Structure formats: C-alpha cells, structure tokens
Amino acid sequence: MKLVNPWENIAIQQIKPGSTIHNFDGKVHILYVLRGSIEVESDEESVKVESPGFYILPRSESFHLTSTQTLSYDIALYYNYDKNQGDNGYQFEFRGDSRKGGNSSDEEMSHLANKLLSGFYLEKSSISDVEVFNLYFSILSLLERKYYKEVPIRSNKSMRSRIEEIKFYLGNNFEKDIKLKDIAKKFYVSEQYLSRTFSEIVGQSLSDYLLEHRMRNVERQLVETNDPVTSIGYEAGFTNINSFNRLFKKRHGISPSTFRKTKTPIQVKVSTRTQESNQKELEAILQQVDQEKKRKVQIDIHNSEEIRISSAILNVGQASKLLMTELNDQLAAFEKYNLFEFSRVSGLLNKSMLRVDGNAPDYALIIKAIGKLVTRGWKPFIVLNPPEDAEFVTSVGQNHRTYSWENWLKEIEELFRLLLNHFGKSALIQWKIEVVRPSPWHYETGINHGCERFKGKLRSYDLFLDEDFVKYYDEVRKSLKKVEPGLQVGIGGIGLEDKESHRYGFLANLVHDGIAPDFYGISALPYSQKNSTSNGKSAIVKSAKENYILMMTQSLITYLEDNLNVSDLYLTEFNITSSSLDQLNDMAFKGLYIFHHHLGLTDFYKGIGYWLVSDFAYPNENAGETIEFRGGPGLLTVSGIPKIGYYAYEFLNKLGKTLLFRDASLFITKNEDENITILAYLYAPVDPSYFSSFEKYDMNSNKLIFHNPVSKNMILQLSKLPADCRNYRAVVKKMSFNDGNALDEALKMTSLNSFDMETIDYLKVRSIPITYMRHIQTRGGTLEMDIKIEPQQILCITLERMY
C-alpha cells in the first residue's frame, strides 16, 4: 500500500496579529503560542493564551486574533467531526487549553506541537513520512482521550455568526451548484430571511458574493496556469460557458483570453535572509521551551490538611484456600502493611467448607478459615454469595441437603451466631458482610447454574431478576440483624461498566422499595465483556481509559445522591484485564495501575481492593501450574514471589496522614515526626488497540502497548520547614521500567531498588539534583530539589529529619 503525503492531513500557518480564523472547515484548529501572548476573541468569549501554550478553537465560530510581538501558529488537522454526534441538543467537540497549567496531557500536547512545528519548518526535507504520521495520530489520539467533550449545540447562535459560517462555506465550495434554498436548509433559516440578512450584513447579495469568489478563482487560474479557458470556467462553477464569457467581459471589459495575455504571473519573492532568520528564531524558541519545561511546585509545609487514604482490601478469594498452607504463608508478606484493614473472602457456605453431620451442618472449617484472618489483624470482609446449586442438592459424603429458601436463611443465621459467640460482638460489628449475586458472566456461561434460584413455602426468588435480588438482599439483611443489630450488611455486585443498570437495574429497585444498605460494594471488572478478539484477549477496551473508574464512580455517586442515602462505598475489586491470563498482569504497569487508582479514588471510597492477592488463589485450575510469571491476576506468583503490583502497596504504606500537595503526578504527605514522603509517578494507560490487535504482542516490546507520555521535569520547593531542623536525610526508592522489557525485569526483581544517595556535607546550593542527594541542608527553612520522572515510573523520596 502506498501512503499519501502525510502533510496533506496537516495544515500549519504562522498567525499574523489582527488576522481572523474561520473554524468552519471541519478541521481541528489548535492555536499554539511559542512567544508572547495572543488574545482570541469570538462572539462567545475572549481568552488570552500565553506562551508556551495552546487553545483548541471551538468549531463553527470565527476568531479574531490580536497581539504584538508574538510567534504563534494555527495547527489544523483533518478530522471527521460528523461521527458520534450527540442527540437531544448535544454534540461532541474538542475543547481545552493550557491556561490552568499543571496538567500532564497539556504538557504532552505542547511536546507534540513542538515536534510537529520542528518537522514542518526545520526538518521537512529529512523527517520521514512515518514520523509525521506518528505525530499526526499521536495528537489525534491525545485529543480523543483528553479533550473530547459533549457540549450543547448553540441553537441561539447570532445571525452574524451564521453569515460568517455561510461566507466560509461559499468560499470553499464555490465550484459546486449552490442554490439559495440549499444554503437556507443547510443553515436552518428561511430563504427570505437569509437573502435579506446576508445583503444587510455583507453589503451584497448571496449570488453576487458567490459570483465574486468564482471570478477571483478564474482570474488567478488564468494568470497562474495554462489550462484552457473553458476548463477554468467549468471548474469555477460556471455551468454555461456563454454566460461565463458575458459575465467576465462585463466585469473586466475584455474576454478571459485577452485578460490572460495582458497579465503576467505575480512573482512573490521571499528574502532568503528573512526566511533563515525566522527558522533560526523558531529553532531557538523550541529549544528554549524544552529547557523551560520544568514545572516549579512550591509547597508551604504549614499549608496542609488531614487526609484519609482509603483502606486497602486484601482479596484472598475462596475461603477453602485459607485452609491451605501455601496461601497462609503468602499472606504473611502483607502483614507489615498497615494499609490493609480488611481481608475479603468468599465461598464460606460452599460445599468444600460446610460439612454435614447427620442433618446438622458443621461450621468448624469456616470458623477456622476466618480465624486465620483475624489472628493476622485483618477485619473479615465476607462475601455472602448464594450457595452452589441452590435449587438442587449439596453432597458431602453420603449426606444430601436441599437448599430451600427457609433452609438458606436458617443456615446464615446459625453461622453468624457461631461467629458472634466465637469472636465477640466488638469484633463482629467492625466486619463487613456483602450480599452479592453471581455476576452476569456466570449467567451467560452457565457456571454454577441454579445458584440464582430459591424455592420457598411462601415465595420463590430468582436472583437473575433485579426485583427478586433486592427482596432477597432485604430478607438476608433482616435475618443477620436479628443475630446482631450492629452487623454491617451491604449490597454488592454493583458494576461500574453499565450505567444503564444504575437507572434500571437493582439500584432502581432499592429506590423503589426504600431500602438503604449499610454500604455499597462496587466492582470494576469487565465480566460482561467476555467476548474474545481474534488474538485471544478479552475485548475490554473501554476500561483501558486512564480515568475510566473515576468517571464511572462520579456517575454512580450522582445517581445515589439523587435517589438514595449515600452510605459508604467500597471498591471491592478492580482490574483492567478480565479473568483470562494476560501478560499485563505481571508487568510494571500493574503497579502503576493500582497506585494511580488507589490515590485517585481515595476521596470516594472507604476501602479499595485490587482483584486478587495471589495467583495461588486464582480460581482457574491452570494457574496451579508451576510457571511463575504467566499473566496471573494476583499480586504474588503461585509460589509467593512478589510481582510489580505488590510494591505499589509498599509505597502507599509510607504515606503520612497530613497532605501537603497532590496533583496528577505528585502526592506529598508528612507524618507526626515531620518526616516528608514524596511520591512522584507518571502513569501510562494502555493503548486500547492492544486488546483488538490481530497480532499478539512480543513480550519484549511492551512499550508498544502503552500511551507513553513525555517525561516530567519539575522543581520541588518546600518552604517553612521546622526551625529546629537544619538537615534531612533522603531515602529514595524507585520502580521504573521504561525500556519496554518490563516482564523480563519483573522476573529478575524480588525486591525494590532501594538506596541512599551519596553524602554531600554542608551543601552550598539550594537546588539539589535528586541523583546527588543524601544529607540535605536547608537554608532559611527552604529546601529545593530537581526531579525527573519517566513514563511508567514510581519514585518514592522519604525526607527524614536530622538534628
């Protein structure tokens, strides 16, 4: 396949102050300012864009640009704006600018714009088509991910603005057979009103304006080309050559052929010296912008607030696994992390846990399994899922029991009375009991078929039905409250993936029945997207978006606030891959994925639990093989080797309770000893094409599956440090895999790269490169340091006070 010239998709023009940009051409126009500033005025607003910065021009508007001593460009990219247009008065557009600052996507946009300008003006003869296409699609990808907004359609657009849009349309389509009625229909005005208003505003009729554009084109073509006069007339939109010749002679007094003979092509000479001067200035500014990209972050130590970091939930899986030595040995690796408050376990009443002695159930194994969690200092988070084969029988030895609805409630009450007697009320009321139903995937695949149905004397329940599940939850909650009113019984199985289920699913039935759970258990697992692509990966592209879980959470909370009492939310499970084994699970990315979401969601959830603690607990029997790194979803391998995700919790565990600063790449806290922890990270989301690619990715080319943002340079300035402390000791831990060989590194890595920096006594400078820092002397209570973060990197700097 032969690719077209990539520059045909890109139009770049240097902006002259006082000029006007008409954004009616269907392109994406990015106003990029490299020097000075520029005022952008439209009918809607007036904004000021300062260098280095950009402003994405809203479509279907005209913009007047005013400024002096500026170097700015209009970068226009071809884009199909007509796709995915909204309904009910809304449409999708690109909107955004860099005026607020501090946004990683804004920095990425500036970086790409610099490279595009450099390629267009300085390297056009040497830059390859592939590089240009890469820049073009990288900018469009960034726009799609970060700047695609749903905005209301302006039905009250001023007629003057519409006339400008019509003028632009005529100027770009004059060669077509254009009629007044067609224009009126296209721009939603009547023919009479359009004809009258156009003449009033423009000073000439629409037909005369169209003729003017056609004649100007003819004049230019006659002078600049050797094309036949007839062809030029037809291509300019004249359908009758006799009429064309008559109109031309009326305008100029001579025929088109004579006009051509009397005119000579206009030679526009651009001074070579001026051109070289402009290029040198552009090159110098681009270099200066790159050098000045360091963002200065000023932090007043006294300007702080108390913060609650969401408790971590340890998902151990099935209760039966807790009875095995291997998993219990692995759980010891998490005891040192105070971050973990709950340990979430399911399957307590499965046939593997519940023995039958005659007709009486034996709960000894359940008590033993729960005890293993309690003795380690974790509060049980019990997933009370329906029994296996509820409509049929559960067999243990020669004993058979049928689960009727009444028997199931009785069994639940008996179990929790035993737990109450064994562990005591003060412990039990701190636990969480999450009443869930099997996921939609279980229904689709037929796993545990029958567990959703109960038959009772008074009524039957089909948990597949939203209305029945809510009634089932209410009955189970009442039974548990009879055991101990202080028990916290929540409803689980709320998926973030399907917003429609919030309005029409079992949450809507909670609203209808007036039931307010003690808490909500939320999961972000794409069970409903189990369809496999041609490469064997599950098609879950939508959850690869950087802030997908945050956006879905905000949507859910809005619904709850509008309709229900908002009790505590727990994100009980989240993952980016489905239950299929996938190399993403064992990569450094998973550490950043956990880290990014735990910090980004901490304001919304009381507890957050990554999907699974260990590959050993993975329900798929294939995970029991001895292959260590094979894409299992756990934080530990089958034999207990920590994977990259495990270390994210080590970093989170170092955070203090007082927040000093936070943004998309920094989280800075201090503890009661005034020791400061700086967490700097650069999260790189997965490129959705990874899940739909027809070719499997090479395990040594993992960098190809990420959106890789540019590295970040910043200067941290900590002021008003304690007066009685002149020195700090810096301990730095780093987790960085940006060479594309993340899996290979993971195989080698059994502990973090932890090191103390070189000693520098009596430091004389205030700016300290982080790579040369150990003992740091503050001056006037202020400390300043340079930090550079690479994509897919977590950097943890602990500043310990020295007296």
Automatic annotation (TrEMBL):
PROSITE patterns to which the protein is assigned, alphabetical: HTH_ARAC_FAMILY_1, HTH_ARAC_FAMILY_2
Domain HTH araC/xylS-type: 164-262
InterPro entries: GH, GH39_cat, Homeodomain-like_sf, HTH_AraC, HTH_AraC-typ_CS
GO terms assigned for molecular function: DNA-binding transcription factor activity; hydrolase activity, acting on glycosyl bonds; sequence-specific DNA binding
Keywords, sorted A to Z: DNA-binding, Glycosidase, Hydrolase, Transcription, Transcription regulation
Domain of life: Bacteria
Family listed: Belongs to the glycosyl hydrolase 39 family.
Protein name: AraC-like DNA-binding protein/beta-xylosidase
Organism: Paenibacillus amylolyticus
